[in-house]
């Protein structure tokens, strides 16, 4: 049966439906949820979705529930192995409000570093400064 499905972006997702997935978006957000549906543009519908942020050995989760993701914003999509999920050390879970300011600082620091690198490449090497926010991928 699988050999009848062409290996395209959306065709390769058929085996992922009803499985827990990790989705990394262009803006850096990391979403965990159950893939319920997709279309030919790789737009995704995740159910029971949580957004997870990390900082210094700790993580926090924010509940989003049903989440529709436009396909062009997906950087990475991977299946989470439920048997191994609990064995992976990811740090201590803390409240979202306690970790969010640190995470925002980390994101802003990374953006400033990337902007500085882009400016140096533009000034000294003639590289183009195309792209907007989240186009670092």
TrEMBL record:
Q: What does this protein do?
A: Component of the cytoplasmic LSM1-LSM7 complex which is involved in mRNA degradation.
Cite the record's note on assembly: Component of the heptameric LSM1-LSM7 complex that forms a seven-membered ring structure with a donut shape.
> What InterPro entries does this protein's entry cite?
Lsm1 (IPR034104), LSM_dom_sf (IPR010920), PTHR15588 (IPR044642), Sm (IPR047575), Sm_dom_euk/arc (IPR001163)
Keywords annotated in UniProt: Cytoplasm, mRNA processing, Ribonucleoprotein, RNA-binding
Q: Which GO terms describe its biological process?
A: deadenylation-dependent decapping of nuclear-transcribed mRNA; mRNA processing
Location(s) in or outside the cell: Cytoplasm; Cytoplasm, P-body
Q: Which GO terms describe its molecular function?
A: mRNA binding
Classify the main location. Answer: cytoplasm
Q: Which GO terms describe its cellular component?
A: Lsm1-7-Pat1 complex; P-body; ribonucleoprotein complex
Native species: Mycena indigotica
Tell me its family.
Belongs to the snRNP Sm proteins family.
Name of this protein: U6 snRNA-associated Sm-like protein LSm1
Where the record annotates domain Sm, the positions are: 8-83
């Amino acid at each position: 049966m699988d050999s009848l499905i062409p290996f395209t972006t959306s065709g390769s997702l058929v085996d992922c439906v009803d499985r827990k997935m990790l989705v990394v978006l262009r803006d850096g957000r990391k979403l965990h949820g159950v893939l319920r549906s997709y279309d030919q543009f790789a737009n995704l519908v995740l159910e029971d979705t949580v957004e997870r942020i990390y900082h210094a050995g700790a993580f926090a989760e924010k509940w989003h529930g049903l989440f529709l993701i436009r396909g062009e914003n997906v950087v990475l999509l991977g299946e989470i192995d439920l048997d191994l999920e609990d064995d992976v050390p990811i740090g201590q879970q803390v409240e979202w409000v306690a970790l969010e300011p640190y995470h925002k600082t980390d994101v802003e620091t990374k953006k400033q570093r990337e902007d500085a690198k882009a400016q140096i490449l533009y000034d000294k090497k003639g590289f183009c400064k195309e792209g907007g926010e989240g186009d670092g991928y």
